[in-house]
Amino acid sequence: MYFRKIESFISKLGYSVSYQNEKEGIFLIESEQDGIKNLIIGVAPPILIMEQYIFTLTGDRVEVLKSLLQKNRDIIHGAFALDEEGKKVIFRYTLQIEHVDINELEGAFNSLGLLLSEYYEQIIEFSRK
């Protein structure tokens, strides 16, 4: 039920689905114009999880982590996070799936696109360190 609903929203919003697996509740989407590539959307009732890989940390870079945490304060929705190994920086956004509508999902995509467009120079610099 929720999988098809989210699939419909993704299609209506014009995002490209490069992979989907209904059994696992996963979509992989892209939007070149928004700088979004391989955005994972997990349909895991009662939540919808969005994760976008940003870059891999090389070593324990306190200044990079501090900057990312400071940027989290500016992000309206979603946040930077680390994967389980503490190596990959991802953008993570969660929504309550029961009441999600197309406008809310579009807002989540827009939040990520805006973050990437405003913060891309720092992200590139961090990925080189």
Description:
With about 130 residues, the chain is of the alpha+beta class. Helices cover about 40% and strands about 35% of the residues. It has 3 helices and 6 strands, in the order H-E-E-E-E-H-E-E-H. A 6-stranded antiparallel sheet has the order 1-2-3-4-6-5. A hairpin with a 5-residue loop joins strand 5 and strand 6 (about 90-95). The N and C termini lie far apart (about 45 Å). The mean pLDDT is about 90.
Number of helices: 3
Termini gap: 44 Å
Tell me about the largest β-sheet: 6 strands, antiparallel
Extended strand count = 6
* Arithmetic mean of pLDDT: 92
Instruction: Give me the strand/helix succession.
Output: HEEEEHEEH
Coarse morphology: elongated
Secondary structure class reads: alpha+beta
* Physical arrangement of strands within the biggest beta sheet: 1-2-3-4-6-5
DSSP helix fraction: 25-40%
The Rg value, from CA coordinates, equals: 15 Å
Beta-strand content? 25-35%
Uncertain regions: pLDDT < 50 for 5+ in a row? none
What topology does this entry show?
Elements (H helix, E strand, L loop, with lengths): L1 H11 L3 E6 L4 E6 L4 E9 L2 E10 L5 H13 L4 E4 L5 E9 L5 H27 L1
Nutshell version of this structure?
The protein is built from 3 helices and 6 strands.
Main traits of this protein?
single chain, 129 residues, alpha+beta, six-stranded antiparallel sheet, 3 helices, 40% helix, 34% strand
